[in-house]
Amino acid sequence: MKIILAIFVGGGLGSVARYLTGKWMVYVFTSSFPLGTLVANLLSCFLLGIFVWLMQKGFIQGLWIPLLTIGFCGGYSTFSTFSLETLLLMTEGKWNWAILNIGVSLAGCIFVLFALSKFLK
Question: pTM score, two decimals?
């Protein structure tokens, strides 16, 4: 039960962080491109890589592991919003933005984790 509560708390904090990231990106940049979701997903991958590294080094233990990795990173990243925003771009005829969103999101998130795996050893 403690693990479920830790995931619940982390997921709530991650969801709020994602909401604030999206609002901040809309405030700073006005664009047809769903930049808030992209930034949240990239940051979530970055944080997940850091958390896994800290876990491997023994700095994160116990309930902090599910709270930060499954909960926070799971709540902060959002595949469903990414998918919906990409579909909306397609239905609006903004195919270039949609393809860019798919490419940058997938390649960017994988690259962030790959770079961290090489940098943090």
Answer: 0.91
Burial 80-112 (b: 16+ CB within 10 A, else e): ebbeebbeebeeeebeebbeebeebbeeebeeb
Q: Give me the residue label for tokens 């700095």.
A: 59
Produce one character per residue of 45-58: b if its CB has 16 or more CB atoms within 10 Å, e if not. Answer: bbbbbebbbbeeee
Q: Kindly report, residue by residue over 47-62, the tens digit of the pLDDT.
A: 999 999 999 999 999 9
Q: For residues 68 and 51, is the Cβ–Cβ distance under 8 A? A: yes
Which tokens sit at 106? 């997938």
Q: For the chain, give every domain's residue range.
A: 2-119
User: Is the model's pLDDT at 114 over the cut of 80?
Assistant: yes
